[in-house]
Structures are given as structure tokens and as C-alpha cells.
Amino acid sequence: MDLVIVLMITLPQLWFYIVYAVFAWRAANCRQHTTSCSPGEASISFIIPVRREPLEYLEQAVEYIHGLGIRDYEIIIVSDDDEGFKQVLFDKLHEWRRRGLNVWIIWRSRPVGYRTGALNTALWLSRGDYIYVLDVDSRLDKCLLDCAMEILSSHEDTVAVVGRWEPLNLDARLSEALGYSMRFIVGAIYHGRNCMGLNVFPLGTGTLFKSRYLKEILNGWDQERIQDDMEIGSRIMYHGLKVRYLSDCAVYVENPSTYKALRIQQSRWAYGATDVLIARWRHILGSRQGVLGKIEAILFLSQYIVPSIVFLGTVMLAVNAFIKPFDVLMRHTHLIIALAISQWFFGRYYYREVKKHIDSSWGTLVNMGRSAAVTTALSPYYLYSTLKALLRIRVQYARTPKGMYQLSSSRIRIPWELILAVLYAVTGIIYLLNNATLSGLWLIANSSAYSYVVYRWRKDVFFN
């Protein structure tokens, strides 16, 4: 049993750190120079799915698109809001159209398919040569549209082009940590993967598609899946088509600034990725990708299984303290050493990326530690969502709260973060009192992560 615990804690992390370190190394040594791209003559349909989004966010998104100066565009807003909000939207629509903005609103009384259903509704009514899905809290560089249209028009086998994700907001502790972490992780797995010739998945916002391919070959998005980008990316791979990545053109996305919003977002992503893995693994294995590309795509969709297994191993280690508190981890020091080395290589590239944006070394380390603490605290939710996907339990699409919706609280919840912080602290001390130093320190470190989240975001821990 002790070997099982150690393997659960070390092997998934070894895979994660080694793979991401390789991608980060490749990205750091691969420069993509995009020549200036001229605006295309083709038309673009912007699709904005909304449900309980702050009205000011929607207004800003529409104004931003109009301000890009695109010659031929249309904005299709698909609303799944309550009927009471419908008139507010249509009043705003009349104002936009009086000003000459080419905006349309589709209000759905029944949100069939939720986000993917909304995307399909707009897709089949769109007239643009290209499709760009836009979240109300994201912005894009004009160069992404210009260069993506140039690439798509000159490469018949390319169905989509993805831009580089950048943080739009760095005004809170959490959003700052997530923003810098996102810069590193997305840069590594997208730019690094692209440089290695591996498959690139579309992003939910930040991808320009060929409309004709979406309609005639892919037949739109799969309304049974809640993770639309990973799902359609798997089918793009199956059809032998390509998705290209532009590292020089940015898409700015708003990161959650509250732990509650992040918990909802990450739970949905964990379920969605695992659900796509189960539904589309045959498409990936049956694609024209090489063996390495297929394996990597499967592992990419398995990314939330990694922290889930580590969490289970850590809980088993904690329970073991009440049964036989010997140093489980010390018995397999070769695996611990290998994990430490892989963490060092990963952390080296991570530190370099974050340090580009933060003046002090201490501030960089604090930012990295904050991100690691939050990721650890989310582990039980990764496990819960992953298990629901594996057991094929259907869930409704839960949108990430934005604006004022991030701050609203409804009812008391079980504070799992506090419970785990106490469990790990107690069992860690038990190990230390029995001279099981390594196992004790591992649990104390995990307890510190949960304790930090409880301290910083108390309201989000105790209330939904």
C-alpha cells in the first residue's frame, strides 16, 4: 500500500512537470516572427453567447468589436437570459442599430445545449466567411484577425487559428497570480506544442474559424459536450485538418478575481476535459496524427486527472498516519528525488516567465506560491468533477461568474478547504512526532496551501 501511495503522489506530477518543462524549453527556443498582415476583404461573424452577464460587459464587447474597423462584420448575440432581461437587451439592440452597428440578438426561451447550443444557433444563421467566438470579458488584437485570415486563406488544410492568451485584469491577488500563471502555461503548451509540430486545440475565445468548414465538415459544435473547444479540436484532428497558433497576436481574457468564480470555472473545465476524453478518444486515435501527437493529445485531455490522483494519494497518506505512521515517502527516495528534479526544471522556466513582469524576486516567488496554493486547494473539486465525467453523470453548464456576480453569495457550504487544512496539519504533526519527516512535511505543506486559501478567501470558502 505504501508503494501505491508514493506512486499516486509522484508519477502524475513527474509527467506533468517533465512534459511542461519540455514544452517551455521548446517555446523559449522557438521564435515565431509574424510579418505584418494586411486586413482581409472577407466577412467575419462574431458570436457572443450570454447568460447572466453584466450588461456593461456586453456593451463594452460590442463597442470594442465595432472599433476594430473591420469593413464587413456582424455581431450575433445569443441570449439565454431570463425573459425579464430580454427587453433590456432589445432596447440596447435598437440603440446600437440606430448608430449603425451591425448587431443582432437572438433570445432563446429554452437554452438547449447551453453554450454549445447557443454557438450552433448563431453559426447556422451567420453569413460571415469566418467565425470568431467572443466572451464578453475578452478582447483581441486586430492583428489576430488580419493574420489569421491570411493564414486560413492560403492553407486549405487549416480550419482555425488561435491567438496568444494574455491576462486582461491583474487588479486582485488571485487574478494577478492566475494571469502570470496563464502566460506561462498557455505559452508553453500552445507555443511549445506548435513548435514541436504537435496538435493545437482551439481556445473557447481567441480562435478564428473558417465558417464553411464548421458548417460542412464539422457540422457545428457537439451540444452534448460542455467543453466546446477541446471537443471540436478532437474532431478537427480526426478529419486531418490543422489548427495553427499565432504567438505574436494576443487575446486578452479576464481571469476570475474571486476563489468562488475560479472554483466554478475549474470544476467545469475538469469535467469538460474528461468528458471529451471519453467521448472523443477514438477520434484522436483514428486521426492522421503521428503516435507522439496522439499520445500527447490524450494526455492533454487527461490534465485534470493528474491533480485528482495526487489528491487521492495525499488523502491516503493522511489516513495512513492513524494506522501506521512510518515515513512512507522516505522508503522511495528515488521517486522523490526525481520529482524534485523535475519540479526544479519546471520552476526554472516558470520563474523566468513571471520575473519578466514582476520587478522583485520575492514578488515573483510569492506570486508562484499563491498560484500553487490555489491549485492545490482546487484538487478535491478536480477529483469530484473528473469522477462525475468518468461515471457519465450529466451536469449543466455553469458559467464563470463575472463582475457583480462574482461577489454574490447565496448559502452556506461545507468548507472542505478548512477540513482538509486541519486533517493534513494533524496528520502531518503525527508523522513528525514519529520521526517520519518527509511524509510529515508533505502534509504540512499541503495544509499550508489550504490554510492560505481559507485565510485569503474566507467568504468564498464558507459560502456558495
UniProtKB/TrEMBL annotation:
UniProt keyword annotations, A-Z: Glycosyltransferase, Membrane, Transferase, Transmembrane, Transmembrane helix
Lineage: superkingdom: Archaea
Subcellular localization, as worded in the UniProt entry: Membrane
Main location as per UniProt: membrane
Matches recorded under InterPro entries: Glyco_trans_2-like, Glycosyltr_2/OpgH_subfam, Nucleotide-diphossugar_trans
One GO MF term: glycosyltransferase activity
Protein name: Glycosyl transferase family 2
Organism: Desulfurococcus amylolyticus DSM 16532
